[in-house]
Amino acid sequence: MKRFEEISNLIASLEGDFEKFYDKKNQAAGTRVRKGMQELKNIAQDIRVEVQNLKNG
Question: Based on C-alpha coordinates, what's the Rg of the chain?
Fold first, then answer.
């Protein structure tokens, strides 16, 4: 569940940057969004590997 909390916290922390980028066209916020999404992708991949390993025993 720790990994789920990491994802939840990451998404929550990016909310402001999403608003700044999409609503106010702030380019720096877009860079932060892209960086955060890459981090989210990496965490998700780690979780997939961990679940697969636990499933296969």
Answer: 14
